TrEMBL record:
This is Arylsulfatase family, member J. Belongs to the sulfatase family. Residues 74-386 form the Sulfatase N-terminal domain. Its cofactor is Ca(2+). The lineage of its organism: Eukaryota, Metazoa, Chordata, Craniata, Vertebrata. GO terms for molecular function: metal ion binding; sulfuric ester hydrolase activity. Residues 559-597 have a biased composition (Basic residues). One of its GO terms (cellular component) is actin cytoskeleton. Keywords: Calcium, Glycoprotein, Hydrolase, Metal-binding.
Length: 597
């Protein structure tokens, strides 16, 4: 898509037809058998090893029945992990075992210049709309459970666009895009079905969440109703995988499918079934050990999802995209080493994510993509793959990057607005003067233009947290990596290509580059919409809603109030009209003349 504004060019960073196979599987009676097994036994192949894949393929002949129509539109499977750190995958050197992720990434395309947002709601909103958060009003923080706020209803979502071209759309997992009105719910934003949680976190077994003392409720939904029938202590990662398997077992693989799987893992609270701790007894740090167990369970879940795609005839015409929603949180076991910073910050550790694409439809498999890719890019990319249309009057911030990923072509993206947050805590020493009169550096903002990255204001916790921070070596060596931000500093410039770990600030050495990036920030800011961050509403308390987190804004009561207000206004107008008429009538009457003598 075309950028909203042009800007001064910077030197290029790297001087440097889609085909879908016509073979799919018709699963008919066999699919019915597996649906029955799912109902009977709960889920399939839990804990099976990767080696079983071959035998499972042998069980189901991957040949379509005679006369079966095969869709030219690929099945789109988007898997979003929660709070997975940049280092926390085997192929990035982690001690945590992730054989499924390693295998899928190795056979696909690893995205090694891939960016998301530093916290949950912004990443999810940008994925589902293709727009930066400054263009949806969600540029500050997350949507809180008690806020009357949600993804703006005037934004056409990805599932809505896919439904226009015949896709069945299903969501499993964490929503976190607001729910105060029924119109904000996933099933009203384009999903045929929804099974998961509305909030940002909660207990993995009981599915309860307390936002504050006395403000607690159940948070597990099936479509638009609380899923009380599933209040049986099943770990959410496993429960969500069961639902994915059920969807695949019951869907016709000759019809296009969009499946958005947003796992709760590995977000806090740190909980995992006991058997996943077996390989991590040597990890001294208890949070890291629990986190490792959670990630191992997640890896196994994705293995089972992949097996189900193959078993039910979807795999050969599927595109699987895997992404974390933001960086890891070291205090909750995550690791972004060797990147700087953590979740909630605009340092690379908060926004550079684990990501890859796995698909038989890729032209160049087993490769690494180092081109610039952002989470907003999935919106136009998936709509294009689905043979859909994007309205010309909709200004997106994402780009179609399929040829970049599949064929190794240059990315159409040259910049990323990481964010501009006008209400975040201002940097004490920021000023217009520090921003050369172009930008107030007290404001939290971050932008990437080709290989340059600029940060202003208060970018957040800035440590590098090395692996030994999670070992029994203690904090002393970790502290050797810690720094204190320079007093009075409110602007930083890094060459991310040469210095991906943000060790050397170049802002004083290249003031010309700083000014160019500040101008680009200013141009973006002119297109920003007002921030949506309302105060909490006491009516959101689950105690007022049957013990469940859910929509509390009553449309009917609003209409009644509106009708009453209109009635009152009409009554006032009627009375005023009557008074005027009386006055007019009285003025036309004859009055006796009074004479005085």
């Amino acid at each position: 898509m075309a950028p909203r504004d042009s800007a001064e060019p910077l030197p290029p960073l790297f001087p440097q037809a889609r085909v879908w196979p016509g073979k799919m599987v018709a699963m008919g009676a066999l699919a019915g058998f597996w649906v029955l097994s799912l109902i009977t036994y709960g889920y399939l192949s839990w804990g099976q090893d990767l080696e079983e894949e071959g035998s499972l393929r042998a069980q189901v002949e991957e040949r379509p029945e005679a006369g079966t129509a095969v869709t030219s539109q690929p099945h789109l499977i988007f898997i979003l992990a929660d709070d997975q750190g940049f280092r926390d995958v085997g192929y990035h050197g982690s001690e945590i075992k992730t054989p499924t992720l390693d295998k899928l990434a190795a056979e696909g395309v690893k995205l090694e210049n891939y960016y998301v947002q530093p916290i949950c709601t912004p990443s999810r909103s940008q994925f589902i709309t293709g727009k930066y958060q400054i263009h949806t009003g969600l540029q500050h923080s997350i949507i809180r459970p008690t806020q009357p706020n949600c993804l703006p209803l005037d934004n056409a979502t990805l599932p809505q666009k896919l439904k226009e071209v015949g896709y069945s759309t299903h969501m499993v997992g964490k929503w976190h895009l607001g729910f105060y009105r029924k119109d904000c719910m996933p099933t009203k934003r384009g999903f045929d079905t929804f099974f998961g949680s509305l909030l940002g976190s909660g207990d993995y077994y009981t599915h309860y969440k307390c936002d504050s003392p006395g403000v607690c409720g159940y948070d597990l939904y099936e479509n638009d109703n609380a899923a009380w029938d599933y209040d049986n202590g099943i770990y959410s990662t496993q429960m969500y995988t069961q639902r994915v398997q059920q969807i695949l077992a019951s869907h016709d693989p000759t019809k296009p499918l969009f499946l958005y799987v947003a796992y709760q893992a590995v977000h806090s609270p740190l909980q995992a079934p006991g058997r996943y701790f077996e390989h991590y007894r040597s990890i001294i740090n208890i949070n890291r050990r629990r986190y490792a167990a959670m990630l191992s369970c997640l890896d196994e879940a994705i293995h089972n999802v992949t097996l189900a795609l193959k078993r039910y005839g979807f795999y050969n015409n599927s595109i699987i995209i895997y992404s974390s929603d933001n960086g890891g949180q070291p205090t909750a076991g995550g690791s972004n080493w060797p990147l700087r910073g953590s979740k909630g910050t605009y340092w690379e550790g908060g926004i550079r994510a684990v990501g890859f694409v796995h698909s038989p439809l890729l032209k160049n498999k087993g490769t690494v993509c180092k081109e610039l890719v952002h989470i907003t890019d999935w919106y136009p990319t998936l709509i294009s793959l689905a043979e859909g249309q994007i309205d010309e009057d909709i200004q997106l911030d994402g780009y179609d990057i399929w040829e970049t990923i599949s064929e190794g072509l240059r990315s159409p993206r040259v910049d990323i607005l990481h964010n501009i947050d006008p209400i975040y805590t201002k940097a004490k020493n920021g000023s217009w003067a520090a921003g050369y009169g172009i930008w107030n550096t007290a404001i939290q903002s971050a932008i990437r233009v080709q290989h340059w990255k600029l940060l202003t204001g208060n970018p957040g916790y800035s440590d590098w947290v090395p692996p030994q921070a999670f070992s029994n070596l203690g904090p002393n060596r970790w502290h050797n990596e810690r720094i204190t931000l320079s007093t009075g500093k409110s602007i930083w410039l890094f060459n991310i290509t040469a210095d991906p770990y943000e060790r050397v600030d170049l802002s004083s050495r290249y003031p010309g580059i700083v000014k160019k990036l500040l101008r680009r920030l200013s141009q973006f800011n002119k297109t920003a919409v007002p921030v949506r961050y309302p105060p909490k509403d006491p009516r959101s308390n689950p105690r007022l809603n049957g013990g469940v987190w859910g929509p509390w804004y009553k449309e009917e009561s609003k209409k009644k109030k509106t009708n009453k207000t209109k009635a009152k206004k009409m009554q006032k107008k009627s009375k005023a009209r009557t008074r005027k008429q009386r006055a007019a009538r009285s003025s036309t009457k004859c009055h006796p003349r009074v004479t005085t003598g």
